[in-house]
Amino acid sequence: MDLLNGLLNKEKRAIARMITLVEANDEEALRILSDLYKFSGKAYVIGITGPPGAGKSTLTDKLASNLRKEGKKVGIIAVDPTSPFTGGAILGDRIRMNKLATDPGVFIRSMGARGHLGGISKATHAAVKILDIAGFDYIFIETVGVGQSEIDIVKATDTVVMVMVPGLGDDIQALKAGIMEIADIFAVNKSDRDGADRTKVEIEMMLDFSCTNWRPPVTKVVATYNEGIEELIDNVFEHKNFLISSGTFLEKRILNSEAEIIGLIKDRIIDRIVNDSSNENDVRIYAEQAAKRKIDPYTASVELLVKSMKEVDNSGCKKG
Amino acid sequence: MGKTIRVLIAKPGLDGHDRGAKVIARALRDAGMEVIYTGLRLTPEQIVQSAIQEDVDAVALSILSGAHNYLLPRVVELLKEENAYDDILVLGGGVIPEEDIPQLKEKGIAEIFTHGTSTQVTIDFIRNNVKNSVRCS
Ligand code: B12
Ligand SMILES: Nc1nc2c(ncn2[C@@H]2O[C@H](COP(=O)(O)OP(=O)(O)OP(=O)(O)O)[C@@H](O)[C@H]2O)c(=O)[nH]1
Ligand SMILES: [Mg+2]
Question: ipTM score of the complex?
Fold first, then answer.
């Protein structure tokens, strides 16, 4: 399969295979992505997060369908948890999106978090770029939905929609700290149920305490009946316009790139020291010493780091 | 780095029996595979497009409605039209009479697993038969 041209020609099989390969850290695929990176950056990236079962997938399905009516092409990446014991996963977000499966202007991909905390997987950033290069106008990322540690979504998107539901009650208070920094927009889903107004008021009250230039709108929606979806899309457009008119759009993307680069540096260092088979022994030896209290872990980590740097110097560029 | 086997589990046609599909989904997950579960009442077109976007190694079709002789070969046909059949293993399971199995295999279904087959047999079959020559790392 000619991945590079396939991707530029927006072929779904090439897009799909590229995502598989970057998930497996395939060097050839990452090289193609490096080469094509300059063609990315045009898509608007939206994060959909919130507690498990809040209706994130159903809502994403409806948001995407509505954007399709305006002729926009939509990519969706849906992340679900991976079992830490077996590495396996059941990825069930597509169940709510089956109608979009055959739409040529939509691409949906499920991803396992594969051991990465923070609500998305390590390869999610790369998958977004692949869809961006392939010409999708809007890209949605649905997070794992554990509710607490979804901070990574902020650094991977332009706008974050926090999906809440009536009856969370005191949970809103508990979630408060995590939520305030993350959400650009609140959607109170399942508003066909009792308590939606109260939830909306509670969120508004929380927002009264924070003073930022952008006050997140709180919109009641019923994803299953496609109610309030247009208003929610307007919220997204308003946020986008705010970012652009206030001059923070580029700044936000710079922060995102910074976080990504730092993440990649960490991965590479860990790879070099821990995952490299020739060094694996070293870590083990230091660990034995540390367990026997012959060296402390602080010194051990510094020595391992220095050692790996030297190896690079000696052999030029040791690893790609 | 080991490659994770990805399997799409789908229920084609108007068939509300989903217990078997869920049993298989859990078994494959516990065997370390990524299972994309798509739920009930899918058309062969939806199944094939989902399989392509998810770049799965196998499509596992669960069917208890009796319409297997049409729906299962139809999935194979569409995969061939998309030039994806060579990369994707197609399996079936559910309530399928013994006498229908030979012709289903002739039409490109790799194997059929009916009631009473241990899930380990299915797991081993997938591991041994995925067409992963194009994948790497
Ligand atoms: C439970 C059941 C129901 C439940 C389903 C609940 C549910 N959510 O699943 C209810 C009561 C709703 C139901 C309804 C109906 N049922 Co019903 N039902 C059954 C019954 C008794 C058991 C099915 C079951 O769950 N088995 C347990 C699971 C774990 O086993 P399994 O599905 O076979 O899966 C195993 C293997 O087959 C295999 N497997 C299955 N799929 C796959 C896929 C792959 C890829 C692999 C590798 C393996 C694999 O692995 C599993 C684990 O070993 C069967 C009879 C039977 N003996 O099968 C009838 C049966 C399937 N039902 C039947 C019928 C006719 C109906 C109805 C039409 C009845 C009616 N007139 O209303 C409705 C239709 C419902 C619908 N919307 O489709 C018929 C189908 C006849 C046919 N195929 O020609 C059967 C065979 C009964 C009969 N002998 O007539 N049913
Ligand atoms: N009453 C009601 N139910 C809804 C609404 N939106 C979604 N649901 C139901 O809520 C359940 C969960 O919906 P999903 O879209 O799968 O939720 P999710 O947040 O993606 O779930 P996870 O990905 O598992 O965290 C499903 O049964 C939906 O049908 C709504 O507006 N009202
Ligand atoms: Mg979901």
Answer: 0.94
